[in-house]
Amino acid sequence: YLLLGRWRKKHLTFRILNLPSRLSSRTARAAVHQAFNYWSNVAPLTFREVQAGWADIRLSFHGRQSPYCSNKFDGPGRVLAHADIPELGSVHFDEDEFWTEGTYQGVNLRIIAAHELGHALGLGHSRYTQALMAPVYAGYRPYFELHPDDVAGIQALYGKKSPETKDEEKEETEVLTVPLVPTEPSPMPNPCSGELDAMMLGPHGKTYAFKGDYVWTVTNSGRGPLFRVSALWEGLPGNLDAAVYSPRTQWIHFFKGDKVWRYINFKMSPGFPKKLNRVEPNLDAALYWPLNQKVFLFKGSGYWQWDELARTDFSRYPKPIKELFTGVPDQLSAAMSWQDGRVYFFKGKEYWRLNWQLRVEKGYPQNIAHNWMHCPLQTPATISSVGDETASVTGTILSTPSAMDSIMDITLSDTD
Amino acid sequence: RALGPAEKKAAVDYLLQYGYLQKSLEGQDDFRPEDIMEALRVFQEASELPVSGQLDDATRAHMKQPRCGLEDPFNQKTLK
How much is the ipTM here? Predict the structure, then answer.
């Protein structure tokens, strides 16, 4: 078995948002309930159905297109279902399948639901082809039961089921005592002082700040609690060089030394970390530029432009940062494109915002701690907030020769 | 019989979709034949098929079976 994550609680709610059209509601609901029972029979988990409102695990059926899911299904056959890992909770079934129960015809909803719930609870695919968590559907089995590998996997996550663990109070205490971050000695950084390692506009529009072994989120109204980097992205070290999320591929790349890690959400992609071969190690920063859908990597006074899905000729890189990003300092701490469409560069205690011509806007640099981290104002110079549109911006949207040269340079690279 | 380009592409797409082949950071368009053979070997071993590294009938048939949409974690390291 492979473990992808776990819920930090053992009493979970679920909600069935809709049901397949060709199976009776009663049969379908019974199949889904039985799917939960397979797991709660062998691990100290409980599942309670809710009819409305939020639920930890949400099951639904959708077809080739869904406004709520970016993973399309492919019609009858092939891909039957997919699910998110903990603690996301989405479980989706292909509406176009012929979902059945109690027959060898079609696809058995109970078995597929149990498989997808395995993912939702934190199990990856098993290499035992007879295991429930095997990636390929092995067909209807009238006397279906979990494979020992499935049982071992779920018990590795949540322990064995025993009468003692049924005690609600004890479990709650257990959950509360599970530390959100490992207790290894590590200096907890102060978000209001010092230099950032990396900044990233991540999936779902969340802004992450990285410093030392810790990461926290930043919003317009405040900042979130500090988590160890490895508590969110398992297998990822602290003290990162750079981080960048690409909405184009959904990939998050983290850079440190001569290695690169790739994650989709919080799951590391197979085969990573890899060695950085064709760009220099010890990068300073990285960002995704939505205008040309490229990833930019920065080190010292140079940058590399990388297309994640096409061959990139790096022989012409690194190029000088100042040729493309006018007014930006060298030796950056961090960089990102933000939800306002602007590019931001961070160095030391200051940050720079660039206009659409990639030229530093009037009034920058400004103070990171005050404007991004919501720390008390310490100097009278830092007065505007993050994303604040000031009148001075208007004066910077003029095209300049240097900016136009830079745009041309990008266009030529795209053509390549 | 010799496989057509569409069949080969479908196999590479499958290996890519389910994590047996990874796009390199350098963004190379084409996978080397040895990379595809290695991915096929891993897929065959994980699927309990004869391990040949070739896109044989059994392998192509297995790729057409209904399955879960999540990636597989298998590579030589995890299999070992």
Answer: 0.89
